[in-house]
User: What shape does this take?
Amino acid sequence: MHPQSQQSSFSFTVGTRLEERAAPSGPTGPRHGRTGTITTPHGTIRTPAFIAVGTKATVKAVLPESMSDLGAQALLANAYHLYLQPGPDVLDEAGGLGAFMNWQGPTFTDSGGFQVMSLGSGFKKVITMDVPVDSEATGADDRVAVGKERLAHIDDDGVWFKSHLNGDRHRFTPEISMQVQHQLGADIMFAFDELTTLMNSRAYQEESLERTRLWALRCITEHERLSRERSNKPYQALFGVIQGAQYEDLRRKASRDLGALDFDGFGIGGALEKENLGTILGWCSNELPENKPRHLLGISEPDDLFTGIENGADTFDCVSPTRVARNSAFYTPDGRWNLSNARFKRDFGPLMDGCDCYTCGSYSRAYIHHLFKAKEMVSATLLSIHNERFVIRMVDDARAAIDDGSFDDLKAEVLGRYYAGHKP
Assistant: This one.
């Protein structure tokens, strides 16, 4: 068990349940949505909440102070990237992730599993999530991206992988992931898991699920050892990661197996078919302990956020708001638009009427259009600020709507307008 004096600095309290203020069931079954509060050594997170991604201890193109101003409650960094550069020992010496990047609030780190598997298969930042189950590609357990070398090799003990930076060979095991994340010092970290895709065979999904379960046990053991050894440090909560792809029995089994273990919360990840996101999340929420938080990994599109919230996700993270910003895309209530289009050259209005972000209060579409055309770096900064604020505010509004009983009305209004005939 964790030292009680340490662990008491982390907690989760359920607030208002969606079923208490709205229809008790939706198209995918019981509605597990709720508000709540996650308490960490570096502050609280009111849930549901969008957790902005600061991959390498920075939200790309945006200052940490700006993230605080636009309402971000917590930031998530990637253990894989920080392990490779500058190294977890550097962050440990600096006082942990938050101190290193001058972020005062709560922090998350992922286990490195997603990056090891996705980069190791040559897919870089995205693994295909929309392959039909009956596709010819299904069952391609050794699939790699076209023209790429497999950089990651998995065995029951862990993963050998080559750095995407310089080709150096590295080893990640559950124990090493825990050691790295303890040095990184985030308030919430994730157990090392094996990421699968919709293209893996059923047999491999079963094999992988058991491997992830055994790795979870090893993560807990090493986490407890390190928590005792580093008892002078703030307690770091450990979340287990639920895999199982598109299979109901595997998702439920993973949720029951990991839900019975001494985790502080849970991440729901892996291959998620977009059209079945709510159903899959509902299976997990049905089985997981209600008194522990659930983090949905890699989600930020408006429809996915509302689906996630009503089916029991408490927090979300995704790189999309800043990634699309660097390609001149910005969010509005009427959809996502490309600011590089010629129509914006003489548009002197804000990115979005009524938006309270710094960018919309200070700059015009025409000016930022010019910055993109001139390839000025600040263009990505200004759009990233707006996009992060847009997504954070959307989730904040959903949280308030659960409390006041207007969630269904808000969902219908927001999604009806956002997807009304407009495609990114």
Summary: The longest helix spans residues 202-229. The two ends are 49 Å apart (CA to CA). The chain has 17 helices and 18 strands.
